[in-house]
Amino acid sequence: MNLPSSTTPTTATSTSPSSDSTETNFTERCDDCGSRDSWVIHTVRLRGTLRFFCTHCLLRNHPTSFCPSCFAFYDSSPPHPSRRVTCSNSKCHSLTHIQCAGDAKPASSYLCPPCRNPTSFSFFRLIVDGNGCRSVDKTLSEAFLCAAKIAASSMNKAVIAAKCDADRRGREAALARKRAREALEHVVMLDEKEKARSVMPKLKESSVDRVIDQKPKLSPASNNGTVKETESSATTSTTTKNNGSTEKQNPSMQLAKVKQEADASR
């Protein structure tokens, strides 16, 4: 399969208010080796950071995600330990199918293809003919497809992580908004209580003043009249009592007189 022969940065035009058109560079560069061929740049999320890698660097940075010999993508489910061989390089730890490793004995000293030739090996070295036309064979196509699968899986995980983070931040924002509303309501309640406390003494003072103003004030003339009325009422009551006692005594006196007259007639 032939690839685009140009590796120069691609440009695009955009309209701005100050000029009719300006050239903007959209070329991506590999963060590891510095390659600027945008056709083979993959976007991945590595250790929580968005990174750009070429096919070779992407595969080198994900050694446990595929078999370095047949480029089978494991998709978070590597083969059973009895069916794989781990690279003995402490910086690699790639997982190779036991059938792809061949007669690697002992298995503890096995080195994957990239670790055998760390300076000259490349997962994705394009084939260039005499005319400068680039092409890929089946092996390079498998390597590129494996890198694309790794990048897609990485970005899917990034989307899930971003969604979970957005949900968490949304819950935190809702909780913070609820706490802020409760705090404002508490402040309003305290302010109303403070206002009520400051108003109560004033209400008490005003009520006392009203009671004092409503009490009747007696003049000296009215006092004398009251004394005279009291004295006259007392005299009247005394007279009434005396008359009553006199009236009560009259029948007994009459009986005594009757008895005296009867005795005298005998």
TrEMBL record:
Composition-biased stretches (Basic and acidic residues): 193-216
Has keyword Zinc? Answer: yes
Sorted keywords for this record are: Metal-binding, Zinc, Zinc-finger
| Residue ranges of the region described as Disordered | 1-25, 193-266
Low complexity composition bias: residue spans? 1-22, 232-248
The molecular function terms in GO held by this entry are: zinc ion binding
Highest taxon, organism lineage: Eukaryota
Q: What is this protein called?
A: Uncharacterized protein
Q: What is the lineage of its organism?
A: Eukaryota, Viridiplantae, Streptophyta, Embryophyta, Tracheophyta
